[in-house]
Amino acid sequence: MKIVLENLTKRFPGRGKKDKTVTAVDKFNFEFKSGKLTGLLGPSGCGKSTVLNMISGLINPTEGKIYFGDEDVTCLSPELRGVGMVFQSYALYPHLTVLGNIIFPLQNLKGKDKMSKDEMIKEAEKAAKLVQIEGLLSRKPSELSGGQMQRVAIARALVKKPKVLLLDEPLSNLDARLRLQTREEIRRIQKETGITTVFVTHDQEEAMSICDEIVVMKDGLINQAGMPQEVYDSPENLFVAKFLGTPPVNVFSGEVKNNKLYIGDEGVMDFPCKDGEVSVGIRPEGFEADVNGAFSLKMHSVEVMGRDKSFVMSHEKAESEAVRAIVPSDSIPEIDGDRVRFSLKKEKVFVFSKETGERIKVSYEA
Ligand code: ADP
Ligand code: MG
Fold first, then answer.
1. pLDDT score of 117
2. Radius of gyration for the chain, computed over Cα atoms and rounded to the nearest angstrom
3. What's the pLDDT tens digit per position in 146-163?
């Protein structure tokens, strides 16, 4: 079932004269595709949780509409929406066993949905099996690892067979190895159940690796949405370019003159657009060591990473101290003095307006 958000807006009132109204979410328009895993991605405070909590019904929007399929659920209470939620803090009941925790949401069902104890246990066992904790049902949460606790929380969210699964930074409390493993698990569970899922995270790598689609947010606004690779390959603005990718995109001050892109004194590539100052983003994989290349940088060190090498360099026009190029491991820099030359891969170079940060697109075809 798709989820449609129409002009969804949330303003929190300030608490005093100096504390102004916060617009946490600003005219959010989006359709979360049915049966897909969509990542809501952005820095802390950009409004991700507020969007999620409005979808679940925990927070009422100030303006706008929420549809589940064709049904307007904007005014429907959370219990009636059929959503399962998982939070960063697993929020398990410490005095209940794993089974008791998973069953809990089923015990409050009323009317025709009411279940017998046996039915509840059967459903809980099914959910536990799905998240692979069927051997832990009699344990207490204090006897579980973080990863296991989060699985219990996911099983508890799934046991009522929700139409929508909402995950708010579910991996943030786990250590690095478990984070990796649990994110694969979430992907598997989502595929197996086919539940429309919204996954909130501030971690771009996490979102990129498991989501069918990502929505990049900043200050309550959608900056860009699309398939992860699409957004990475073609960022609409400087913020999105910088937010996606590790190592991050390298940003330089540049200038376009006579259809050529300059960084410092060097005309690094053809760029047919109107003259003016620009910001240039070059992905680390966009550099090709080339003694005849047009772009030179100061070489500092080479980090060997197995499959690839990373050249750590600097440039007077770069926004950050270090400029990183990722090159194949057999690439040997020819250093002239302390500088090394590159040609650039056009599709890995993004040019942005200095004023607005919006991408300036040109077609390279003659
Ligand atoms: P995220 O989940 O992306 O970190 P949030 O949705 O939690 O961001 O918050 C978005 C903005 O709304 C922040 O500026 C935050 O301080 C503000 N905010 C969130 N909840 C409340 C609240 N209950 N009262 C006032 N301001 C809030
Ligand atoms: Mg949050």
1. 92
2. 25
3. 889 999 999 999 999 999
Q: Cα separation of 203 and 230, whole Å?
A: 17
49 lines ligand 1 (CB under 6 A): yes
Residues with Cβ within 8 Å of 256's Cβ and at least 6 positions away in sequence, in order, are 262, 271, 273, 274, 275, 276, 278, 351
Between the CA of 249 and the centroid of ligand 1 the distance, in Å, is: 28
pLDDT at position 332, please? 79
Does residue 365 have a pLDDT over 60?
A: no
Same domain, 75 and 181: yes
The mean per-residue pLDDT over the stretch 42-58 comes to 97
Q: Quick: pLDDT tens for 280-311.
A: 999 999 999 999 999 999 999 999 888 899 99
Q: Looking at the chain, how many residues does it have?
A: 366
Ligand nearest the Cα atom of residue 51: 1
Residues of the domain holding 267: 247-365
Q: Is the pLDDT of residue 364 over 70?
A: no
Whether the CB of 48 sits within 6 Å of ligand 1: yes
> What is the tally of structural domains in the chain?
2
Residue % of the chain over a pLDDT of 70: 99
Q: Whose CA is nearest to atom 12 of ligand 1?
A: 24
| pLDDT for the residue 267 | 97
50 lines ligand 1 (CB under 6 A): yes
Q: Any idea which residue has 């617009």 for tokens?
A: 23
Domain stops at, among 218, 239, 260: 239
What phi, psi does 243 have (nearest 5°)? -75, -30
Residues 351 and 264 placed together within one structural domain of the fold? yes
Spatial contact of 319 and 253, defined as CB atoms under 8 Å apart: yes
Q: Are residues 251 and 329 in the same domain?
A: yes
